[in-house]
Design a protein that fits this description.
By secondary structure, the chain is α+β, with helices and mostly antiparallel strands. The chain has one domain: Gcn5-related N-acetyltransferase (GNAT) (Aminopeptidase). It has six helices and seven strands. The strands form two sheets. It has a four-stranded antiparallel sheet with strand order 1-2-3-4, with helices on both faces. The longest helix is centred in the last third of the chain and has 15 residues. The structure holds coenzyme A. The site of coenzyme A has 18 residues, from strand 4, helix 5 and helix 6.
């Protein structure tokens, strides 16, 4: 299992996974047309964030793909720093595992790998947020040493949102 930057080698597997996400109503903000027509431009656009040149509202972040047995498993987004919004919603790391690969420990292992990348960036602790009713995500945070700070109303929908901190060793 490995965490990589988006790579054309896994394009087909990634596109299959996108269909699974769409089927459950999750839009991952990936431009499918661009992926098909110009993968390099797609990859560049996402990794530009890493260099802090994303002109939109976000902070620099790195987009990783979790790969196992040559298959796209999920994606992990590592924000290099927090802003006011991310402090309230989103935190440093967001993750999605494709529907057909859930319940197999992938999010737990993928988060562990992403935490190593966070440490390489010089972060000492990272914030992870999840909806209180997302039991799977709560466990993923706890499995990786997450300590609950508090539960606040989500900026997205006002529902209870948990904020977890993981200290990096
Ligand atoms: C939440 C999510 C990332 C979990 O991924 P996963 O690969 O299935 O997680 P894991 O297999 O590592 O499971 C971790 C733990 O959660 C439990 N779990 C997973 N899904 C669960 C669910 N729906 N309900 C209850 N427990 C669940 C597992 O049994 C496991 O428990 P254990 O540590 O006691 O063995 C995945 O369901 C997903 O991508 N959901 C949609 C996007 C999302 O919610 N992202 C998180 C936003 S904060």
């Amino acid at each position: 299992m490995k965490l990589i930057l988006p790579h054309i080698q896994y394009k087909m597997s990634f596109l299959e996974a996108l269909k699974e996400f769409h089927a459950e109503g999750i839009e991952l903000q990936f431009d499918e047309k661009k992926i098909n027509e110009d993968f390099d431009a797609f990859a560049e656009e996402y990794q530009a964030r890493m260099r802090g040149v994303d002109p939109s509202k976000t902070v620099p972040d790195t987009l990783f793909w979790l790969i196992d047995n040559d298959t796209f498993i999920g994606r992990f987004s590592l924000r290099h720093t927090l802003n006011k919004r991310l402090e309230q919603y989103g935190g440093h790391i967001g993750y999605y595992i494709r529907p057909t690969k859930r319940g197999m420990g992938y999010a737990t292992k993928g988060l562990a790998l992403t935490l190593k990348e966070a440490k390489k960036l010089g972060l000492e602790k990272v914030l992870i947020t999840c909806n209180e009713d997302n039991l799977g995500s709560q466990k993923v945070a706890k499995n990786n040493g997450g300590v609950l700070q508090d539960v606040i109303p989500s900026l997205e929908n006002g529902k209870p949102l948990m904020r977890w901190w993981v200290t990096l060793h």
